[in-house]
Design brief:
Shape: rod-shaped
Strand content: under 5%
Largest sheet: none
Radius of gyration: 21 Å
Order of helices and strands: H
Helix content: over 70%
Number of helices: 1
Oligomer: single chain
């Protein structure tokens, strides 16, 4: 399958947009993960549970 230059540009644009939104989602998930880890650490600290056990 051979694409025209316009089709190649459109495909590239679509890929760039997908990457942009994937990176935003990753950043959101990393922030959520950090919050959850902090909450878990706080719960474990107050309950005296050792997370390594």
């Amino acid at each position: 399958m051979q694409l025209t230059p316009e089709e190649l540009i459109s495909e590239f644009h679509d890929a760039v947009m997908e990457l942009y939104f994937a990176r935003k989602r990753i950043a959101h998930l990393e922030a959520e993960n950090a919050q959850l880890r902090a909450r878990l650490e706080a719960v474990e600290t107050t309950s005296g549970t050792d997370p390594a056990v």
